[in-house]
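Extended Data, panel c. Modelled sequence:
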Amino acid sequence: MDKLLIMTLSVIVAGLSVTAHDVAAQNSSDRAARMDKWHQEMAEFRARSEHDRQLAALADSLAYVQAAAAVRNQDFVLEADNVSFKNGMTTFVNSSTNFISVKGNRAVVQISPSNFASGPNGLGGVTVDGMITGQKIMTDKKGRTTFSMNVMGIGINAEVEIYMTPGTNRATATVYPNFNSNTVWLDGTIVPYDSSDVIEGSSL
């Protein structure tokens, strides 16, 4: 009887050992399959990301070429998405009402940071319309292009410098009014004049 019991227990233990081994092997196989799937998904994600980066870089490059040509032809608009003032305040603004436009020898500088007050131009700010003099375009060795001009209007005379970011159509403009020291900075994108949909208010 004891021998039979011992043999029965031995068979059960051996069976459990085989089952445990099979479960461990299955778990190991499942983990390997999950890891392989994860590696494959990551490779596909990296490939898509690289493709997206290449498309974004190409779009930026094309936008830069288009913007640079528009600046050289004096036929462009810098549509600002934020404006900074000398006191250090920076505010996000509507690009359709905050801009610098150049069309031939005519320029418009419009700064309308308020969406609530009408302002002198009826759009919450100031609009200056004037003729361009002393315009210059310079490109340094690093490919950074600067367009500078004087804007002479009835309400204001100002010096304007526009700095283009190499490889994109992003740009920063500095406006130096000649009658005071209230310098203003505009950051935004440069687009061809005919591609812009800015809203021009009443000029001074």
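Helices lie at 2-72. This feature is highlighted in the accompanying rendering.
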